[in-house]
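Incident log, support desk, overnight shift.

02:14 A customer reports that sequence design results differ from what the structure should imply. Their input is reproduced verbatim below. On-call engineer (initials T.W.) acknowledged and began investigating.
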């Protein structure tokens, strides 16, 4: 292996370490409370239960999803959601104030990002 090849291999390894660090420490949304936390639980339940999100890679445990961003897009109205409440060990149906959007990223081999999509709550008009 010549000097240039060694340098390229070293740079590749450094970039891989940076990518893994980004995945482990920075990607998933943190510090949520109230309705944002409930919406995150709703999205996680939808990702587990809906067939459209559970392709071959997810079923064979070669890929995973992380919620990387949650934002409130409308203040008025209410959004009905259902999520798994861990402390109560059951599904809870609730209405949250406003409409939310989550950005979900799929990771191949749980590290390499390979797809991204958004999930929105349905706004109920009165």
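02:41 Re-run completed on a clean worker. Output:
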């Amino acid at each position: 292996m010549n000097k240039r090849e060694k340098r390229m291999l070293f740079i590749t390894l450094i970039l891989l370490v940076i990518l893994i660090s980004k995945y482990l420490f920075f990607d998933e949304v943190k510090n949520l409370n109230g309705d944002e936390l409930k919406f995150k639980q709703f999205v996680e339940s939808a990702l587990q239960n809906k067939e459209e999100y559970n392709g071959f890679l997810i079923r064979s445990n070669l890929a995973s999803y992380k919620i990387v961003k949650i934002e409130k897009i409308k203040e008025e109205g209410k959004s009905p959601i259902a999520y798994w409440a861990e402390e109560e060990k059951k599904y809870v149906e609730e209405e949250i104030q406003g409409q939310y959007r989550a950005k979900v990223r799929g990771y191949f081999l749980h590290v390499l990002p390979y797809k991204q999509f958004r999930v929105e709550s349905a706004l109920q008009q009165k």
